[in-house]
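Q: What changes when iron/sulfur cluster is included in the input?
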Amino acid sequence: MYPFNYSGLLGRRPNFSPRRARDSPCLVHHRLGIPRHVAYNGIVQAISRITCTITRMSAEHTPAHQLHRLVETIRHCTRCRLHQTRTHAVPGDGPFDADIMFIGEAPGYHEDRQGRPFVGAAGKYLNDLLARNGLDRSRIYITNILKCRPPRNRDPLPDEIAACRPFLERQIALINPRIIVTLGRFALQFFFPNASITRVHGQARQKGGRWYFPTFHPAAALHQPRWQPLIEEDFRKLAELLQALTVSEGPVYHQLSLFPADDVDSGPGEGHPGAGTHGQADIDPPHS
Ligand code: SF4
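A: The predicted holo structure follows.
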């Protein structure tokens, strides 16, 4: 038994009338004679409008929404000459919260046609490398240094890279991947301008709280079969790195090989990737 009778609190008051309560003037608006339910509906609508505005403003500031807007900006970009010859810009593909980001050089013929990265022969080879090492492409964000195809798949020019650089930097800031895999020398030198791909491929390096893992461009390996065992070994190392990162972020790192100290410069964002290539252009025929 309850020690106190709650029935009086839960029940209606003796003279309560819903209709009278509804039609009596609102306490706030009684001077204007506005019925309570009209005033109530107005307050509810105002709160609803404020809530919707806050929700919309919050959604507009999520990384997913900002990435979507960035993609739209890239699709209509005219910052450099490449917009004149492209069929489609290729902003990138993958989840906005990916832990892994792959960065290639520039779209090729099939990418330009479809507006998606790595869908040609190099893309198939990339898919094969991923699958062989148990990596799921759908969980990786894939993009390029340049978002538009250079004519005849020529090398990116420094001014084109400079014009397109803010897009990639913004993508990295929004996605915030744990590890960036650079494919080919242009992607490597975007972050480490003085690094040589033949010397540092397959060697992970941590910088600014993020891992970088350079390897060859899949198109280069297709073009030069002698590079295929190297890129395949690199992908095995990449799988090991990812497994190590998954298990622990402590002592596991010490087992990974790092860049030799004289192979890196002071860091990303300085100079253009064309500098310091050390004659490596022959190993890096481009484009996905
Ligand atoms: S390559 Fe980059 S900067 Fe040049 S037009 Fe395309 S999106 Fe714009």
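Observations recorded in class: The chain has a mean pLDDT of 81.
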